[in-house]
């Protein structure tokens, strides 16, 4: 019947009822580029389905004789009959092929369509014409066959014999141009760049200095080449106090010893949490400075190494918080509240060893000792030992480039998955930025080749992104998100992060949105483990791998996508659980040192295959492969944690039942969406697009709408930062039981209200139509 309808439509000069256009054009002024996404009238607000853009005057036809009318009726009947016969013969032919496929008598040419979250791994039938048609198993195998270890090695070799790729400097700009040229050479549909003008804190004309002052005499401990960006500048002096990893629990343990931390210089070792979080904890207790080192027990062979880092408790340019740093925008002087405002420097473990030898005093608890000899918490009260820290960093205006390349989707080009990697690094950055950039280039080459030469026709678009200033806190990625914050959450449905994909060879570390757990699990089952013969990556992580998912940190470029923009993310990599990669963020992060981790290029290929399969599956199927029902499970898990505190809350005249009711509404909303998908006409593109849009909004709807993105940028109630998060609410309930007088009741009321209505709002949005929502709980 499709053919019959086509014949009749052509006969009467029928025009398509809708169109979709996606273009990425270079601007001549201001930004170097812009993304333009325009939908047809029936996709826009207020549009009317089927209404053409230009209405022409309709003239009354001249009167026809009865004979002419009879002739036209006969002709129309004949054309209908011919169309019906053509459609029937075509349909019969397809069914015969399907029969041969199912009974095993011939090659399978048509695969029955299955639900996108079904247990089997069958594919969906491609609608778009043009040989050859690629089904999911063929597509997966084609990706695997095309990925080249040799090409990955060539890409990574760009990092060899280079000292630094600092953001905005010569090597960073040169690499940006190289990536732009490679994307063009790969024949991506569009290649462009975004320019951002940002403020960075860089090394001054002289090195920073750490000294010990004893009885009025100053002795220099160290003056390293490395520095910590966004530190307070100038000189500070204070008593040294060691607090292990700088966790809140570590500070509380020291405070229980009746040690005053005001006006002190805190010493902590790297690991557990980011440097910025350690510094924020030090500032909270009144410290004037902080020193961090690589402990030999965590990072082997690093006695003399000093890492780089940044101390901004946030992402993006801290001098345009919440706003994009495009060249045509001007803002009054403003600073992020996440800037440390205390002096910060990194030192070697050798320098810390010498400092401990001068402190005397009580030795560290056994579990705090690490690998530095003579560990001390603080100097003896009888000594007059202080530390002087001088920071000479300077502010610099830099232009950075984010480089993009796009493969346009055929059916929904204005919906896209983004694959990204950090490009800049302090030092050679082989593991920090080189591996991810190499994988990004290889995926762009391979997937473009599949589209241009092998006939793959993605339904949705794929964008490849190379970010700059990642070392300063995902600045490039965050500025892009801020620049397009009004639309990105309606367009981008997943971000795949390739940074630091190989830091070891024994284990896998995964951070992801719950929406991607099912797809990630399916993908790992289909990728061979390069280190275990015939096994797959799923065997490496185990059946309970979800319990080992690591929360995204501020130093992960995927974090702002999830917590700021509400876009589902996945970030993964190989590492050694018992031994951290020692050279990350140092001048020794070279290709030669990274190769000592074992099977480097085989692991890079496996990581590329995982990322590539995720991107292809998300752009291949009719429905988005996002498991929205997972969040119902996450909410239920939090409800179980809240449940023991019901009586404690009741003593304040409050109740948790409204929060529970909101969770129940969300569960019913997911059930309703699942029914709508099951009962929908999957061949109807308008219906399918509407359902996919409802799936896409799930992540975004967990950003609290009651907070300002400028003041609280990370608004996600599961993964954000601040009192609005479910984790913060749980901590307050725990505090309520431990010490009722210490809890701010009004703040607790606000937390309950914000959490309840954020979840309720997410449920209402998931339902789709306001007349289907239940606003009475």
TrEMBL record:
Source organism superkingdom: Eukaryota
Regions that span the bilayer: 70-91
Subunit structure, as described in the record: Homodimer; disulfide-linked.
Family per similarity comment: Belongs to the peptidase M28 family. M28B subfamily.
GO biological process: intracellular iron ion homeostasis; receptor internalization; transferrin transport
Keywords: Cell membrane, Disulfide bond, Endocytosis, Glycoprotein, Lipoprotein, Membrane, Palmitate, Receptor, Signal-anchor, Transmembrane, Transmembrane helix
Protein name: Transferrin receptor protein 1
The record's account of how the chain is modified after translation: Stearoylated.
Chief location: membrane
Disordered as annotated region, ranges: 30-53
Organism per entry: Columba livia
Membrane-topology descriptor: Single-pass type II membrane protein
Domain Peptidase M28 as annotated: residue spans: 402-596
Biased composition, class Basic and acidic residues, residue ranges: 30-41
PANTHER family: N-ACETYLATED-ALPHA-LINKED ACIDIC DIPEPTIDASE, TRANSFERRIN RECEPTOR PROTEIN 1
Location(s) in or outside the cell: Cell membrane; Melanosome
GO MF term (any one): transferrin receptor activity
GO CC terms of this entry: external side of plasma membrane; melanosome
Domain called Transferrin receptor-like dimerisation: residue spans: 655-766
Entry function: Cellular uptake of iron occurs via receptor-mediated endocytosis of ligand-occupied transferrin receptor into specialized endosomes. Endosomal acidification leads to iron release. The apotransferrin-receptor complex is then recycled to the cell surface with a return to neutral pH and the concomitant loss of affinity of apotransferrin for its receptor. Transferrin receptor is necessary for development of erythrocytes and the nervous system. Acts as a lipid sensor that regulates mitochondrial fusion by regulating activation of the JNK pathway.
């Amino acid at each position: 019947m499709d053919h019959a309808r086509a014949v009749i439509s052509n006969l009467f000069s029928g025009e398509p009822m809708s169109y979709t256009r996606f273009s990425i054009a270079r601007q001549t002024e201001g930004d170097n580029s812009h993304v333009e996404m325009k939908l047809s009238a029936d996709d826009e607000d207020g549009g009317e389905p089927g209404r053409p853009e230009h209405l022409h005057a309709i003239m009354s036809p001249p009167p026809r004789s009865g004979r002419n009318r009879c002739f036209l009726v006969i002709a129309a009947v004949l054309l209908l009959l011919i169309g019906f016969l053509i459609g029937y013969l075509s349909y019969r032919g397809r069914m015969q092929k399907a029969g041969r496929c199912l009974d095993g008598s011939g090659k399978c040419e048509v695969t029955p369509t299955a639900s996108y979250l079904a247990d089997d791994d069958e594919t969906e039938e491609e609608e778009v014409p043009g040989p050859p048609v690629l089904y999911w198993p063929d597509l997966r195998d084609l990706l695997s066959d095309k990925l080249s270890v040799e090409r990955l090695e060539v890409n990574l070799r760009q990092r060899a014999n280079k000292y630094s790729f600092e953001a905005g400097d010569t090597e960073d700009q040169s690499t940006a141009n190289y990536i732009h040229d490679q994307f063009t050479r790969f024949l991506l549909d569009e290649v462009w760049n975004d320019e951002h003008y940002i403020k960075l804190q860089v090394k001054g004309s002289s090195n920073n200095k750490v000294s010990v002052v004893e009885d009025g005499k100053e002795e220099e401990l160290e003056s390293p080449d490395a520095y910590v960006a966004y530190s307070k500048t100038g000189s500070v002096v204070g008593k040294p106090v060691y607090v292990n990893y700088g966790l809140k629990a570590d500070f509380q343990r020291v405070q229980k010893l009746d040690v005053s931390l005001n006006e002190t210089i805190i010493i902590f070792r790297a690991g557990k949490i980011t440097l910025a979080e350690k510094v924020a904890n030090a500032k909270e207790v009144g410290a004037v400075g902080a020193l961090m080192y690589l402990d030999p027990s965590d990072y082997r062979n690093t006695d003399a190494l000093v890492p780089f880092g940044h101390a901004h408790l946030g992402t993006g340019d801290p001098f345009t918080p919440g706003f994009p740093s495009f060249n045509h925008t001007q803002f009054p002087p403003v600073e992020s509240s996440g800037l440390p405002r205390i002096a910060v420097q990194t030192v070697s473990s050798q320098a810390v060893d010498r400092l401990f030898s001068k402190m005397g005093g009580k030795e560290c608890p056994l579990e705090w000792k690490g690998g530095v000899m003579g560990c001390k918490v603080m100097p003896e009260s009888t000594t007059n030992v202080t530390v002087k820290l001088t920071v000479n960093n300077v502010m610099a205006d830099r232009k950075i480039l984010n480089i993009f390349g796009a493969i346009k989707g055929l059916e929904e080009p204005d919906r896209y998955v983004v694959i990204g990697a950090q490009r800049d690094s302090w030092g050679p950055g082989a593991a920090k930025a080189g591996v991810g950039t190499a994988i990004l280039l290889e995926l762009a080459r391979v997937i473009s080749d599949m589209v241009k030469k092998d006939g793959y026709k993605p339904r949705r678009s794929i964008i490849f992104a190379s970010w700059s200033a990642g070392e300063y806190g995902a600045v490039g990625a965050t500025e892009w998100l801020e620049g397009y914050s009004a639309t990105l959450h309606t367009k981008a449905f997943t971000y795949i992060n390739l940074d630091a994909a190989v830091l070891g060879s024994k284990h896998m570390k995964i951070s992801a949105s719950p929406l991607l757990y099912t797809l990630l699990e399916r993908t790992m089952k289909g990728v061979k483990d390069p280190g275990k013969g015939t096994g797959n990556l799923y065997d490496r992580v185990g059946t309970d791998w979800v319990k080992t998912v690591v929360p995204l940190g501020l130093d992960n470029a995927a974090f702002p996508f999830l917590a700021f923009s509400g876009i589902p993310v996945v970030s993964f990599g190989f590492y050694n659980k018992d031994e951290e990669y020692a050279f990350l963020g140092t001048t020794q992060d070279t290709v030669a040192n990274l190769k000592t981790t074992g099977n480097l290029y085989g692991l890079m290929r496996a990581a590329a295959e995982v990322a590539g399969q995720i991107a292809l599956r998300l752009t291949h199927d009719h429905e988005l492969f996002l498991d929205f029902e997972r969040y119902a499970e996450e909410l239920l898990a939090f409800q179980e944690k809240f449940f023991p505190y019901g009586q404690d809350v009741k003593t304040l005249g409050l109740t948790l039942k409204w929060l529970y009711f909101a969770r129940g509404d969300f569960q019913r909303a997911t059930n309703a969406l699942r029914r709508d998908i099951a009962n929908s006409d999957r061949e109807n593109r308008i219906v399918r697009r509407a359902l996919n849009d409802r799936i896409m909004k799930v992540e975004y709807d967990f950003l609290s709408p009651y907070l300002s993105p400028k003041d609280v940028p990370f608004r996600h109630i599961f993964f954000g930062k601040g009192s609005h998060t479910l984790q913060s609410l749980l901590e307050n309930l725990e505090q309520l039981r431990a010490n009722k007088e210490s809890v701010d009741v009004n703040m607790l009321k606000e937390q309950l209200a914000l959490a309840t209505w954020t979840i309720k709002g997410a449920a209402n949005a998931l339902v789709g139509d306001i007349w289907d929502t239940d606003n009475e709980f």
